Structures
1.
Amino acid sequence: MIGETDKKDKRESRTIAIVLIAMLLVLGVILVLMLPELTELARMHLSPGLGVKDSALISFFVSVVLLVLFALFSGDGLIGELQFMIPGFFLFFVLNWLLIAWVF
């Protein structure tokens, strides 16, 4: 009995570790993909403004990162909250997109 629960716990912890490593790799890829845009944003800091196309790109990555964090911290409600997170993502994306284009 005890050996079975230990094996199950090991399997669960290994699965969690693999998922966390995969998410860190995805986050690394997102950061690498954002580097050219961030350097372009830094270069154009004093230019007349940021276009709608560039703000959409920045807004997409900001929305994805924040909603992944929200999903991680929601815990057990991850699957139950999916129907709220998908429309929330699109609303958050549009809001960020328009605000970034307006402010910058």
2.
Amino acid sequence: MLNPTGKQPAGTLAVARKVHEACERFEAEWKARPRPRVEDYLGPPDDPDRPALVEELAGLEIELRRAVGESPSHREYLRRFPFHADVLARLFDDPDEPAPEMTHADPGPADGPRPASPSSSAPPTGGERFGKYELISELARGGMGIVYKARDTALNRPVAIKMILAGALATEAERERFRREAALAAKLDHPNVVPIYEVGEQDGFLYFTMRLVEGGTLAGRLDAYREDPPAAAGLIETLARAVQYANDQGFIHCDLKPTNVLIDRDDTPRITDFGLARQASQASDLTTSGAILGTPSYMAPEQASGDRQAIGPATDVHGLGAILYELLSGRPPFRMSTMMETVMQAIYCDPLPPRELRPDVPRELEHICLKCLEKSPADRYPTAAALADELARFLQGDPIDASGPLQKLRRWARREPAVAARLAGLGLISLLTEVNYWFISPEPDASAHFWVQTVLGLWAALTLLFQQLQRRGWESDSIRGAWIVGDMACLTMLLWIMDDLDTPLLIGYPLMVAASGLWFREGVVWFTTGLAIAGYVALYALAGLEWGRGGPGWSQPDALPYANIFIACLALTGYVIARVVKRIKAIGQYYEIRRRG
């Protein structure tokens, strides 16, 4: 809207610029994969720009999802943004669809205060009295609890109250876990841990009060730290000292992430939310039953796999590393479109190095961050104190000892398994070819040897080329398809050059079909299967022409029946792999639906 002078107000321009920059970052991350979440680009619940951000970012996400054949629904987005129904109504053609029953399975801040409910099991709302406390406003809402800004009328001081979300309907396990959180946090007395004041029960609601930290969460300050890596290192050093204190008291936090770090008005960071914390000295049925507890994007592999025996101080080191990674790169280590894919990434893959996302990140700080995120707890810093000491050395300009060449190679192989597997396989074939040519073959064929090594070199070069194209944000499906075509073409050329029906390289066709299942795309599996069959058939077509090569073994009449069997086996392999992929995706979608309520 224009003011009387015909100019757009400065505030409106600032909001428009903020929204535009957020949309640009969101779309760039969408193309680079993994998919970003709109929620990660929103400010705190009381941010006046939040409705504009929700409207533009959600609209952009809906458009991008529809472009790839998905069908986002009004109901789904109402669950995610229940307090922006008016905004969502403008984005869908069915604005009159009734709002679903709201759930709060996802951790993190909600979009705003929830209206009062007539149900006695519903939590109170801002403005109500809660015992001796006057509730002022809702600060955040997570999977189990809700946090209010309040005033203690007896002591006349501001506090934060956390209460169990389900109220009188909470199960005994939920109530016991809530009591545990309060009991654990109450035992900690550290300047960088939010202190607990009181624990009690009122009107069927378990609650505890704690210091009110009004500066917001670390999640709202990511941009500032991304522009200042040394400040990010200093912050993590401070948090690591606090985590070491908790570990020394026998507690493992198990859910360290930016939304669980509060920043006071004097910029003092304070760790909160000990809902998943466990005592290192004893197992608890509440947190160690083999269930996967935590936030997938920040989980240590031992958490993601449910390996309770491996959870220890190094688990919190991983959490600190995940926070540092997001401070440096602007996104968490892993974030896929579904929870199952994210958990699989956390268990088996390494994140992209921060310098590939932000080249201005100091190399030493990147090494420290990636060492925290090692898959094996034994390869990380053994304690949070060791991490803090390493960060202190970095800040002082002293040498660090984050990782050696072997660890870097292992980390790269986990981060780029497709490239590592191809290069290792091609290198082994090249080595065996050289050994066979120089030491074993009674009549070495210099021409065939030259062409085999040339094709192997071309194959390796194509692998590195496609890897670089994929990293630079080229459309993933197109690159994936071209990569598969290149693999099949190179394998078929090798088989044609070797001119031998009995070569062990024939196993390459079914291996590639099986490996295509790692993309978790049925279409990719069938595409690879079709190319494998086409390549195998092409060998016979070429051999039938003889190309002046004196009738190669491929064209022998008695070989054709075996070819038919081989082709049938390739098709069957593709079918089995595609079915496995379909079932895994179905399981992932089922748990994703359950998680979102």
3.
Amino acid sequence: MGLSISLLFLMTLLFSDLNVIQSATTEYTTLIYKGCAKQQFSDPSGLYSQALSAMFGSLVTQSTKTRFYKTTTGTSQTTITGLFQCRGDLTNHDCYNCVSRLPVLSDKLCGKTIASRVQLSGCYLLYEVAGFSQISGMEMLFKTCGKNNIAGTGFEERRDTAFGVMQNGVVSGHGFYATTYESVYVLGQCEGDVGDSDCSGCVKNALEKAQVECGSAISGQIYLHKCFIAYSYYPNGVPRRSSSSSSSSSSGSGGSSSSDPSSSTGESFLSLFQLCLF
């Protein structure tokens, strides 16, 4: 399981079966993308399946208590490392509802592959067997840009200023930040075990990719291996609505902040963002 497997996994992430689903039962369980290693693990004794099941169970259980958790299960011959992360503005209840869907989705979408990543709009799950080659934390896994472009309105200047605010915010928020700047809503999050300095660098990289990849698109999402960012521009102001899933910052999730009174929670942003994006 060397570099070729890692490249195959990355190729799968980038070029095959990256599904963007427009409908979902709730706004934080929309499937964004999935990445599956090409290679299935050999499991004549069933030990890998047992280890994978135990890992899934542990991740789901922990999702009632925290928004990020990483664990390793199995024996020395069947070691599997897995993690989940929920968006920083989800409650523990919503985090659990999101994460509890991921084991079934992983099995349905990828089967018993040696590595799998399933990203929903509110959470993601990743696992890999021991020996699976690593990819850079800055590697872009998925991008999507709004179909509508904004020109001649100062949009890109507003967006770039909002990007700068967000890059600073993910540091002060210890890995999660969401804010509005002049009708541009931005949200960024890093994987829970990434330090503040590395998080800032990852988000900066993602923001630069958004500028290049999405140009003047009204909205966009960029997913790197260790962080993601999303933005959306609302010319008439960010719509307000109530949200049952917003929460104050807590250990391990970072905080969120707003820079003007018209901002809404990160969850309502992503719900509206999905409508705008597709």
4.
Amino acid sequence: MRLVPANLDIVFEEIGERESDFLREFDKLSGNEDDPLGAWMKRAKAKGDTKESDQVILTLLVELHRKFDELNAYIKNEKFIKLELAQSSALDGINFENFRIKEAKFKEGVGYYGRIFMPIFPKRDVAIFFEALDEKTAKITRINESDESDYNGYVTARERAMIRELKEMNDE
């Protein structure tokens, strides 16, 4: 399995007894709940109301609106508190379906829930469910559709950066 280097952090925990808690947080982080702005955007796109709009500017405006919502929630002390997860590690490598952590912390065949902090726009934690293939390597089994698109874009960017680095080394 070919993995590209990535400088990302993950927090995770065995699914065990907390599966319903993890599913609830997964839905919240994935924007499936409590996101009237996202729901409005999806309806507008489905009706074709955004065809004439510049998608980049529209996305920036939506994210700006979300920031205002976050500030409003902060002022009202309504902050969403993420679950405490038992383990953490740095990622050693990633690809489109798998990742590897630096320390051996997984149990082969066990299912986990985790969050990877992604340096994408907008910066956020990407919630995932995954299964350990060995003590360091895992296969992603569930990820939100929009998060998957952004995650895959990040993997592609890391692959391109690695190719450029290898090309520069070969040119020397």
